[in-house]
């Protein structure tokens, strides 16, 4: 669930991606993403397919809990102008939960579960599966694949090209379903981010790309 909020004042101070792993939301997290023109994307969500659920399963309450407990989110919502309502949706993840093909049909995008577990990144992955589906449809219409081989060939290409990365994100999500693992990861996160998150000292949060990335988090987990 997320909403958009505008604050020119905070936008001058905060240019970092902020993630809060809080015990009350675990397994899940809250976020603040600065965007253009002083607009922030503020949201929270939890992992429905994790080994455990947060104490409160209602996603509006999960969002409320994030805002109440994360000082920066509390400050932002108190000062910023809301742009529209909070909105949310379930995300289908891990390349699981759907048949990927049947005669006459190829399934791509989120219908195929093409969003990453835990990070919820789905736009690029939906495009990748769409491109793969289009390439296989092209091969069918140009006679390289038949009605019988089209579906299996598409499924195999998804398994080879994408499945290992999805498995890595799924593993990361399982780890991040436990507060102790979240504490471990945040303890290893760059100091600038921790200061911003813990104390709301937004002036010290800088250069998010260099300080924090999902791939860095995955590497930390793997280590
Ligand atoms: C709150 C939230 C935040 C997110 N944040 C990010 C993010 O920061 N980065 C990121 O990469 N991803 C993010 N995602 C995930 C991302 O939105 C999805 O992974 C992505 O949109 C999937 O693309 P898609 O084209 O497969 O499906 P969709 O974007 O869901 O498109 C499917 C379309 O099909 C239409 N449709 C459905 N049924 C029919 C029908 N019968 N006939 C005709 N049309 C139909 C729907 O109306 C819709 O427009 C977020 C998702 C949510 C819910």
Walk me through the structure.
The protein has ten helices and seven strands. It is an alpha+beta fold and 223 residues long. The protein has two domains: 135 residues, no CATH class; 61 residues. The strands form two sheets. Strands 2-3-4-1-5 form a five-stranded antiparallel sheet. Strands 6-7 form a two-stranded antiparallel ribbon. A hairpin with a 2-residue loop joins strand 6 and strand 7. Helix 2 crosses helix 3 and helix 4 runs antiparallel to helix 5. It starts with a strand and ends with a helix. It binds flavin-adenine dinucleotide (FAD). Flavin-adenine dinucleotide binds next to helix 4. The site of flavin-adenine dinucleotide (FAD) has 14 residues, from helix 4.
Which residues sit in consecutive blocks of at least 5 with pLDDT less than 50?
195-212
Beta strand %: 15-25%
How far the N terminus sits from the C terminus, by CA atoms, comes to: 31 Å
Shape: elongated
Strand order of the largest sheet: 2-3-4-1-5
What does the oligomeric state look like here?
single chain
Major sheet size, sense and barrel closure: 5 strands, antiparallel
Topology as a string of helices (H) and strands (E)? EHEEEHHEEEHHHHHHH
Share in helix = 40-55%
Number of separate helices: 10
Average of the residue pLDDT scores:
85
Ligands, ions, cofactors: flavin-adenine dinucleotide
Give the C-alpha Rg: 20 Å
